[in-house]
Amino acid sequence: MSKEIRALEPQSVWNSFADLNAVPRASKKEEQVIAFMMDFGNNLGLETIKDEVGNVIIRKPATKGMESRTPIVMQSHLDMVHQKNGDTDFDFATQGIEMFIDGEWVKAKGTTLGADNGMGVAAIMAILQSHEIAHPALEALFTIDEETGMTGAMGLKGGLLKGEILLNLDTEEDDEIDIGCAGGVDVTASRTYNEEETPEETVAYKIFVKGLQGGHSGMDIDKGLGNANKIMNRLLFGSFENFGLRIAEIDGGGLRNAIPRESTAVVVIDKVHEGAFDFEFEALVEIIKTELKTMEPELYINKEEVDSPARVMSLGVQEGVIKAIYAAHNGVYRMSADMEDLVETSNNIARVTIKDGNAEVMCLTRSSVESSKNDLANALRATFELAGFDVELSGSYPGWTPNVNSPILEVLKSKYEELFQEQPEVVACHAGLECGILGQNYPEMDMISFGPTIRGAHSPDERVNIASVQKFWKYTLEILKNIPKQK
């Protein structure tokens, strides 16, 4: 791990982050990082437990003079999104994240960085290790599987935590205080189909869509970023009518919570239409690039001739699948009427796979309004069912309803103004923070979220601002000193 990273200030935070990033920690594969965190707490001589689902809780008594303050929970999630560039040779199961400094930012070499939510975990680790930082009685809650279902937060039982205030360290703008977030539901459309022998007198191509920025399917959904699955579908739409295009396979996107950056497809067309197809394909590529040139300057779309596949999707099913993906909503569905510039409801068409008689489309639908979330999920369900898909709605989790009268909010606002001579932005976000879920079993707990500035989360462009981490750390220590007395 880079010595330059460990030398950054505050060293206690960056050293903890480097230690954490040496441990593989994909969502649903957190065994190694759970063991790491259990060893960390036990080696400090602190009460350390693992609950039934794998969340780790480390308890530290109040420092001298802080015994009368309200006990708190500091919470971050252990897992990270594993994404890498197509040309990056990296094994997330065995390798630690390779970090480097690029000007004002810390980045990773061709992969996600894990600053989401590793910087929050690292800050809590630094506090647990310290003998100088003033704080009330503290429970460090390290949840699992936040990124692919929030099952850690969902599985945390009521009565286990004793703290009355929860500080969630998973916000990605250092001038924002989050008091609410979106809920979500996974929409999965799947169907089988008959394959047919590839027609004679055809030519086969592999089509590539790559070079997109990608990003967080909640926080970045309103930025006008390209979606590789929708772009690929647009390239294929109409070609089966005009040029006899038949699909052999499609492999697009990855995780539900990441805007898809890449897609590939293997198709065949009637050889007699080869010249016309080339002309129309290149013309459409230029149109798409022109539309997206501001937000996606590195967009790359190309095709190359390949060996003909043995079988292709049956024509009737192919038409229905392409039209369903074209019709399915992607992006912002509704803006909030109550909070300025807040996305209320959205959908990300995250993953499209077609191969060997099986077709699947995976989406993540988010909303801060439960009825609107259900409305969009049902619209997607209807779209895909019309094309013969079976549709499953699963993994639903609630949003976090803002409390503008929160006592801890007043502390954070006043301390921010004192430290930085400006007012913070008090917001609700379109990401899925765990506060709403935790609040179901701890309804009386006062919750707030803040953190350092992170860009490009859930993509290999993920980066964290160095000066922002220093600001976040200074702010965190001031908050801890000013937790109100217990009533």
UniProtKB/TrEMBL annotation:
Keywords (A to Z) from UniProt: Hydrolase
Highest taxon above the source species: Bacteria
Annotated coiled-coil segments of the chain: none
Nuclease as UniProt keyword: no
Pfam family, one: Peptidase_M20
Signal peptide (UniProt feature, chain positions): none
Ion transport among keywords: no
Domain Peptidase M20 dimerisation: 210-294
Name used for this protein in its record: Aminoacyl-histidine dipeptidase
Biological source species: Zhouia spongiae
